[in-house]
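Hey,
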Amino acid sequence: MDHHQPAPIAAPKQIGVGWWLVQGAGLAMTLGLMVVLAFALMMLTRMPIEGQTDPDTHWPTFAVWFVLCAVTVIGSMTRSAWRELKDEHVHVDVLGNELRIDRWSPPPERQRFVEQVAADTRARERAVEHQRSASEGDDEVATTAMTEQELRSAALRRREAGTDVPAAVPTGPWSRPLRLLRLTALTCLYGWLPLSLVVVVVLVELQDRVDAMWGLLPMLLLPIGWVLMEAHQLLRHRWLRTRSSRSDLAQWQGTSGFVGAVVLALLAYTGVVMREDYPGVALICFPLMVLCGWICKHELAHHIPSGPDRDLDVHDQPPDLSLTD
């Protein structure tokens, strides 16, 4: 086949009985899931309104949630099925124009589509050949520019964190204490759940002789581990003072702020539902939730994303020490 010719346009896929059965089964399953989801959302909506954890069924609220969920999900499924039913082929030429052909396009339109695609393919190949021939005389300049770019990136890496940029491991008399601090923090963060399970099993066997409240003791490892990891990140950044260490600190604090905002949102919702028993929970949790959200937004702005442009992002701005000085 001539390489200037595009691949032939495939014939539209045959839509048989099986395809319609699959679509019908998917629609029925989706409607069933929407019923369950609408009922759950109805209960969550009525809980803060009635101030009870087991509100009565409110069918108008259920109908509103069901319509919203069904329209959103079934609308997306309908668009997907319609695109598959049309079997549309789209080609964008060099000028940005879209050439379309679908299942019901007449034969002359299909032929014109094939000719336009072939002409566009030849135009693209001519442009590539012209660009290649024009760039042959600039190889030396491109090589020099690339070398300057590599030297600049290396200089930026040395300026920021020395020769060990990716790891940024501190060296010196405080390196071992920092590693031990990080190891202890990770042990607390990862070990509280297995230890809690072990304590629960032990308390089940000794429930007649030991108070069940002791089962909450292993959960103290979670805040202890967070405090130790926060201390590690702060001390590490105070020592290195690089954009890489500031990025690691921002990632940890931003993640902590996001998790705190989610937990406080759940507590605030519970306080609204149980406002008669705990009237001040929501008033305390809502401002703290906003504060955690602000911390997350502020810290993630200093996080350096991983990727090929990391070296350039490191040099965009100096280290921000506002929260550590």
